[in-house]
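User: Run a structure prediction on this.
Assistant: Running it now.
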Amino acid sequence: MRLLVVEDEKSIAEAIQALLADKGYSVDLAFDGDDGLEYILTGLYDLVLLDIMLPKRSGLSVLKRVREAGLETPIIFLTAKSQTYDKVNGLDLGADDYITKPFEADELLARIRLRTRQSSLIRANQLRLGNIRLNTDSHELESKESSVKLSNKEFLLMEVFMRNAKQIIPKNQLISKVWGPSDNSEYNQLEVFISFLRKKLRFLKADIEIITTKGFGYSLEERT
C-alpha cells in the first residue's frame, strides 16, 4: 500500500515515514503544498497524511483542489491543538479524518488502517479513470456533479474499457465480451453503442474519451 506524507518539518515527515515503512507501507514525502498537490493528483496513493500549515500552498487549499479534481483519495489532516477552525474547515472540504500533533504511533496506525479499509470497501464496486467512476452495482457512470444510468450492453462495454484502460481493444474482442460469439452483423451495433457511451461521457463532462484506431479497435484514454 502506497502512502504520501505532506509535512514541511522534515524530521517529523521522516519519523512518520520510518514508522510506516516498518509496518510494510511504501511512503513518499513532500515538503510543501505545491509538491504535495502534484503528487496527490497522480492518483498513485492509497492514503495521504496532509499537514495544514505548509509553505507555498496550505493543506486546506491542497484538499480543495484534490476534491475539485474528483479524486477521493483518503486524506487525514495533521493538525496542531490550536487549529480547531481549520479542522472543521478541512472536514467540510472533504477530509476523511484528522489527528492532532503530537500523536501516538498506535493512534496514527489505527486511523490509517480504518480509512484504507473503508476506502477499499468503496473501491470494490467501482472502476475509475480520470474524473469518471463506473459503479458495478448500480450500472451507473458517475462524475462529481452527476451520474447516468447505462443499459446492460453499455455497461458491459464500459466495463471492458475501464478494466483495460489506455489499451487498444480489437473490435472482435469487444464484440465477443459484450455480445458473445457472433458474426459480422454485430459490428454496426458496436459502433452504435460506442456512440451512446461517447454522448454520456460528454454529458458528464468527462476528461476521458473513447478513441478509434481505424481498422483495429477502440481505447479509453484520458484527455491530454
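The domain at 127-222 is CATH 1.10.10.10 (Arc Repressor Mutant, subunit A).
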